[in-house]
Each structure stands twice: as structure tokens, then as C-alpha cells.
Amino acid sequence: MIDTAKLRDHIFDVVGAIHQVHKELGPGLNESCYQEGLQIEFTQKRIPYKREVTFHPTYQGVKMEAQFRLDFLCKDDIIIECKAVPKLVADHRAQLFNYMRLLKKPCGILVNFLPRYAEIERYFFDEEKQAVVPANKAVIGYRTC
After folding, report:
1. pLDDT, tens digit (0-9, with 9 covering 90-100), for 81-125
2. Vertex 110, ends 107 and 114: CA angle to 5°?
3. Contacts for 45 with CB less than 8 Å, ≥ 6 apart
């Protein structure tokens, strides 16, 4: 069983960085702009990350030639998949879920920067059950009271 409370705390600063990038850049730019902004923000906040991590899946223990690329791997266990699309759809989630499952990483964040308020979805991978569990679906906005 996964310790969701521990994982939520672990991703707190990463989600804060995502929020800050969207707040500063605003909606409507292309995905690569937001990725570059995240790279700068992660560096400034000293959040360990790797950008555009490539990996090869295995089949029956044999490394395949097929290759995939993650947008970000933070703290060695949080996969971040960035989008700038009108709406997140099942294919976007499936991409993140497959990365989490293949790499056995416990945390995944799917973020859509295009809307007025960044859509941030957090997921946890339960290796024991071989299942992805939604942490919550949240639309994170920056409104003033």
C-alpha cells in the first residue's frame, strides 16, 4: 500500500513551481515555453530534476529499441508530463500512467498550462497492486480575495 500522505508532502514544492511558472507566463503559450520556465524555476528553487529523460521499455527482461521521453523527472521519483492543450484527455493520462508503470515511479503529475488556470492532476503508482491511483484532480488558480 502506498503512503499518500508522505507522497503529497514530497510533491508540494514541485506543484508550487508549476503554479509559479503558470502565474508568471500566463495561459496560451506553447508547451516548450512552459518546460523552459519549469527548468528555470526548478533550478532556482534547488529542486533536483532531469529534463527530457529518455528510456527504453523492456519485454520479458529484454531491453527494447523503442524509446520514450519524459518531460521531467524530479527528485528521482516524480514524473511530470507537460501539456498545452484545450483539454486534458484520456490519452494524456494513459501516457503518464504508462511512464509511471514502466519506470516504477511512485508519483506522476500531469499539467495543462493552456487554460486560464493551470490544470494539475496528481497520481500515485501502487507497485504492489500495479495500479495508478488518483491523488486528486485539481484546478489550481491564483485568485485574489
Report:
1. 999 999 999 999 999 999 999 999 999 999 999 999 999 999 988
2. 160
3. 13, 16, 17
Grid-cell match 495561459, residue found: 27
Residue where the block lists cell 492543450 = 85
Domains and CATH numbers, the chain: 4-139 (3.90.1570)
Q: SS3 letters for 12-76?
A: HHHHHHHHHHHHHHCCCCCHHHHHHHHHHHHHHCCCCEEEEEEECCEECCEECCCCEEEEEEECC
d(CA 52, CA 116): 26
